[in-house]
Amino acid sequence: MSTFIALLHSIVLTPDRRVIMEDLRALAKELGYREPRTLVSTGNLVFEADDMRPHELEVALEEGFEEKFGKHVDIIVRSDCTWMALCGTNPFRDGNGDQVIVRVMRLPVDPEKVEALKPLMTEGQRIAVVGGDLWIDFAGKPSQSKLLSALTTKRIGIGTMRNWNTVCGLAQMIM
């Protein structure tokens, strides 16, 4: 048995309805996963499962989510080992925890797509690709950056963003 982390790209089902974390934990149990627990109400799920490849879990979770909630949502799964490795790769540890964000990717981000983001960066912002994931230090509120709106699935690929505080919180849950 292994520990896994699942990151939902979105918990918004309709403009006025979101997935409740209790329902997300219930879905994990229905799929046969053990000890499901969540961190904050933004689609961060930690659970135990038989040794499986993360992609197999992604498919099962995405299909289960769509069946239960009526909407497809991209879900990225990482094993506890790969999550801890991701934690060790933050190139911007000197940044503020709520301003440093990693876009956890299903497949390694294309370096050409990252280059296309650079003209949108403002003074103080930093960007790096480590292990196929995209790290950004927004050096301010991400919501006030032109860069944030460019980090779409269509433009960058399937992935989801988490700030450094959340990354660390999930690491603490699997220790």
TrEMBL record:
* Taxonomic superkingdom: Bacteria
List the InterPro entries: DUF1697 (IPR012545)
The chain's coiled-coil residues are: none
Q: What is the name of this protein? A: DUF1697 domain-containing protein
Q: Which organism is it from?
A: Rhizobium leguminosarum bv. trifolii (strain WSM2304)
Lineage here is: Bacteria, Pseudomonadati, Pseudomonadota, Alphaproteobacteria, Hyphomicrobiales
